[in-house]
Amino acid sequence: MLEFRHWELILVLLNLWLGTSASTHWVVTENGKIQPQLDSPFHMRRPYDLLSLLEQEKRAMEIERLYHEMVQRKVAIDEEWAGLESATELENRLYTSDPDCLQAGKPLSDI
Question: Three-state DSSP class for 20?
């Protein structure tokens, strides 16, 4: 009887150990369930590292700054891209107005 209890305890502990997921940042979902959030800037790869813990706010602020910088760059690229002509429009305009293209009489790709 005592031997069976030991095996039962070992199996329960093994089941708990296999079903446990280690995480350092947890969030409450809309359903009220608590789940680990691995893509968080506060998720720590080495939770035992005190310096890493103390600097996580700096890292979060740096991530936020980089995100805003990337958004500004994307807006600038989109504005420039909107102002450019498409390649076919540019090609047609050059063939009809450029003196060298008019003198050749046909596109360079046909020569």
Answer: coil
How high does pLDDT run on average in the chain?
76
pTM value surpassing 0.70: no
Q: Where are the beta strands (DSSP E) in 1-111?
A: 26-28, 34-36
Question: Which residue, chain included where needed, has tokens 């506060």?
Answer: 42
Q: How far is CA 15 from CA 12, 19, 20, 35, 65, in A?
A: 5, 6, 9, 19, 43
pLDDT for the residue 70? 98
State the Cα–Cα distance between residues 18 and 25, nearest whole angstrom. 20
Q: Three-class SS of residue 28?
A: strand
